[in-house]
Amino acid sequence: MRANHRMQRLFVEAALGEAAEIEPNPKQAHYLLNVLRLRAGAELLVFNGHDGEWLAGIAEAGKKRLRLVARAQTRPQPPAADLVYCFAPLKQGRLDYMVQKAVEMGAGHLQPVLTHHTQAARVPRHRLEANVVEAAEQCGVLALPTVGEPLGLDALLAGWDAARRLVFCDEAAEGDNPLEALQAIAERRLALLVGPEGGFSDAERARLAAMPSVTAIPLGPRILRADTAAVAALALIQATVGDW
Ligand code: SAH
């Protein structure tokens, strides 16, 4: 059942249940009161990542504060998505975009991977998490993906769970069409790896190619930007072996 994309959706920390009271934080209150100009009696959808989605009404609206009351659950809490999205962090604006697209496309865990050519030195976790919430609010994702601490590629691969198939987007892969390789995947537990703007080093490519859990795929005859490659690969995976 797809989410109601017409109503305003808000991520809240409060536990949600019949008649649960919710006090949005100051930033959210400002948005509801001054940007959306909502008043007492208005309704919106709220979720907290655990209790599903609830219809809530504005019980009282002051100048800077408002109180919501949860009325009825509109969608049950779905299981967490299992797709692990491994990515070399990009420069901030593109990173924001890429994280939001991964959430919309159904990633269950976002794993920053530091590779030889990765440009972004720091990966601000709070910023990644803010992007997760923003994408979830916009697209009705109720099971929020978790965000991992950045790992070097060697560390990521050293601890790799052999039961999880890692689809490696290899800009140097043979051929152009990934469908055959993807449709040959038997595992239900999946992960995706997209490199940095500078691509993977030969040593990294060799290390990945040597892993039995890894399936290298091409993404067409052109070199895509990393954030384009992320969305293209997520669509291909979801449509062949994922949840589409
Ligand atoms: N600078 C590199 C390209 C890096 S593109 C070069 O010129 O070769 C950034 C990442 O997007 C790559 O590491 C890869 O994961 C993915 N990607 C981009 N185009 C791709 C393609 N045609 N096939 C497979 N992966 C691709």
From the structure above, extract its key features.
about 30% helix, 7 helices, about 25% strand, alpha/beta, binds S-adenosyl-L-homocysteine, 7-stranded parallel beta sheet, 2 domains, Alpha/beta knot, about 240 residues, 5-stranded mixed beta sheet, single chain, Ribosomal Protein L25, Chain P
Give a short summary of the structure.
The protein is an alpha/beta fold and 244 residues long.
Outline type: elongated
How many structural domains can be distinguished in the coordinates? 2
Bound small molecules, by name, code or SMILES, are:
S-adenosyl-L-homocysteine
Annotated CATH homologous superfamily of the largest domain:
SPOUT methyltransferase, trefoil knot domain
CATH topology of the largest domain: Alpha/beta knot
Count the DSSP helices.
7
What's the overall average pLDDT, rounded? 95
Strand percentage? 15-25%
Structural class: alpha/beta
Intertermini distance: 12 Å
Give the ordered list of helices and strands: EEHEEEEHEHEEHEHEHEH
Give an overview of the whole structure.
The protein is α/β, with parallel strands linked by helices and 244 residues long. The chain has 2 domains: 9-75, Hypothetical PUA domain-like, domain 1 (Ribosomal Protein L25, Chain P, Beta Barrel); 84-240, SPOUT methyltransferase, trefoil knot domain (Alpha/beta knot, 3-Layer(aba) Sandwich), CATH 3.40.1280.10. It has helices at residues 26-35, 92-104, 125-139, 153-158, 179-183, 202-209, 226-240; strands spanning 9-11, 21-22, 43-47, 53-61, 66-75, 84-87, 109-114, 146-147, 151-152, 165-169, 190-194, 214-217. The strands form 2 sheets. Strands 6, 7, 8, 9, 10, 11 and 12 form a 7-stranded parallel beta sheet that branches. Strands 1-3-4-5-2 form a 5-stranded mixed beta sheet. Helix 2 crosses helix 3 and helix 2 (92-104) runs parallel beside helix 7 (226-240). The two termini are 12 Å apart. The mean pLDDT is 95. S-adenosyl-L-homocysteine (SAH) binds at residues 169-171, 173, 194-195, 197-200, 218-220, 223-224, 226, 229.
